[in-house]
Specification:
Blueprint lengths: L2 E5 L2 E4 L4 E8 L7 E7 L6 E6 L6 E3 L7 E6 L4 E6 L8 E8 L7 H4 L9 E2 L3 E6 L1
Length: 131
């Protein structure tokens, strides 16, 4: 059974930092693109960042570029999202997703949800940024 487990969320003041982790179980981690998405109540889920398999290149949406950094440790089956200079508008539930195709870091990252084509999701972790 495939499981994606997120951790590291919490409450932080504007300008602060958090590091999210996503650990995968039950899949060949090296073969997967891993992405972070977020959702606030009443809105569609949206892409945040994605990391490719192999060279581990990171992709970001414009609103987080320069503030967030994605990385992966294949030995630990884990992807990290370092979030710096957090803003109140970053408040959301953050989800990680795993997909075999680059489409995760392209089409899905840049398009609003729902994402019916993405099969593997974590349960989400809340991030709250106070002003």
């Amino acid at each position: 059974e495939v499981q994606l487990v997120e951790s590291g969320g919490g409450l932080v003041r504007a300008g602060g930092s958090l590091r999210l982790s996503c650990t995968a179980y039950g899949l060949p981690f090296d073969d997967y693109y891993i992405g972070w998405f977020r959702q606030v109540p009443g809105k569609e889920r949206e892409g945040v960042s994605c990391i490719s398999k192999g060279d581990g290149f990171g992709y970001y949406v414009k609103s987080v570029e320069g503030r967030f950094t994605i990385s992966r440790d294949n030995a630990k089956n884990t992807v990290y999202l370092q979030m710096d200079s957090l803003r109140p508008e970053d408040t959301a539930v953050y989800y990680c997703a795993a997909h075999l195709e680059f489409r995760l870091c392209g089409f899905y990252l840049l398009s609003p949800g729902p994402y019916s084509g993405i099969r593997h999701w974590g349960n989400g972790v809340p991030v709250t940024v106070s002003s």
